[in-house]
Amino acid sequence: KRMSDRPRCRILVVEDEAVIAMLVEDMVLDFGSEVVGPAAKMDEALRLASHAALDAAILDVNVGGAVVFPVADVLRSRGVPIIFATGYGSGGLPPRFRNDPALSKPFSYEALAEALRTVLADQPCHVEAA
User: Fold this and answer.
1) Are 9 and 56 within 8 A, CB to CB?
2) Does residue 115 contact residue 84 with C-beta atoms inside 8 Å?
3) What is the distance between the alpha carbons of residues 68 and 12, in angstroms, rounded to a whole number?
4) How confident is the model over 27-38, as pLDDT tens digits?
């Protein structure tokens, strides 16, 4: 069976800065996964987090002046692994999210790929374009 026959992982991207959203989107596509979103507003992010088929999520901690944790709670309740993107490091996360991967912005492709590899390790979807 060829790699391309396997379903690609679907990654929710929540990021309110268009330039960063595009960069993250490119990184996810380079990794060989599909992008859901990107969502730039909390209501859209919550809708996708609640209803979309997802294998993981990359969440900007601060979205349009609001914190993204309600979205993270929805994802957690669905068992969707989360990667936080933050200007503050994991110290800025509430205790319940301290064990989730947190990338400090700006982050490299390698850092994101490493985090995706980690959270997708138990998922049946295709992990990475060889």
Assistant:
1) yes
2) no
3) 13
4) 999 999 999 999
